[in-house]
Specification:
Layout (H helix, E strand, L loop, with lengths): L1 E4 L2 E4 L7 H17 L3 H12 L17 H24 L3 H14 L4 H13 L3 H19 L5 H17 L2 H4 L14 E2 L8 E2 L1
Antiparallel strand pairs: 1-2, 3-4
Helix pairs in contact: 1-2, 2-3, 3-4, 3-5, 4-5, 5-6, 5-7, 6-7
Length: about 200
């Protein structure tokens, strides 16, 4: 129904019929399942929430200034959920799905280190180390060239792991040419901590 307000009109609809409210509800439900240790259920709810999105940004056809703050908040929540969702996929061994999910996202968010790091790690797990290193190299160049900053420690650790993997495939004489700062341990793994914002090496 349409209601009259002092500053205009308002449409009264069921909250469950509004995608923004449904997104928030599914996000909270996913958090509950995650805390209960049910990762598959949490991942499914996150996927359902992300599938509610249409278009590149929230409210992209709405130009009303008062709604821009709400749109920005929804966009930030979406990007955060994409990171949480791909965390879960990596944790449960679905690296191929991570590549599918993030290959496009990193182009939309060219400075997001978390998404780039997760995509690179997923590619490494599929044996596509060269592609992973290229993605991280481009991110490093982009951040350095445009802002004069370097990648964070988590992304740098994933990059070192990729170089280590390449090193292990080379002849000893070739491997000797790599920087001495590389970690000596060749068997390392990335643990995806669900309650952390970034993948770290253990």
């Amino acid at each position: 129904t349409i209601q009259t307000r002092p500053n205009g009109y308002a449409i009264d609809v069921d909250r469950g019929l509004v995608d923004a409210h449904a997104f928030e509800t599914k996000r909270l439900q996913a958090d509950v399942r995650l805390k209960a240790g049910d990762m598959d259920a949490a991942a499914g709810m996150m996927r359902d929430a992300l599938d509610l999105w249409h278009g590149r940004t929230a409210l992209e056809d709405v130009l009303t200034e008062p709604l821009q703050g709400a749109a920005t908040r929804l966009d930030e929540l979406r990007v955060a959920m994409i990171g949480d969702y791909t965390h879960l996929l990596l944790w449960t061994g679905r690296s191929e799905a991570v590549v599918v999910e993030l290959s496009h996202c990193v182009r939309e968010h060219p400075y997001n280190e978390r998404l780039h790091g997760q995509l690179a790690r997923a590619l490494q797990l599929q044996g596509r180390t060269a592609e992973a290193l290229q993605i991280l190299r481009e991110l490093r160049q982009r951040l350095g060239g445009e802002f004069g900053i370097d990648v964070g420690t988590d992304v740098a650790a994933i990059e070192r792991l990729g170089i280590r993997l390449v090193c292990d495939l080379r002849a000893p004489s070739e491997a000797a040419d790599l920087p001495s700062r590389l970690p000596a341990t060749t068997t390392r793994k990335v643990l995806i901590h669900i309650n952390n914002t970034n993948p770290i090496l253990d």
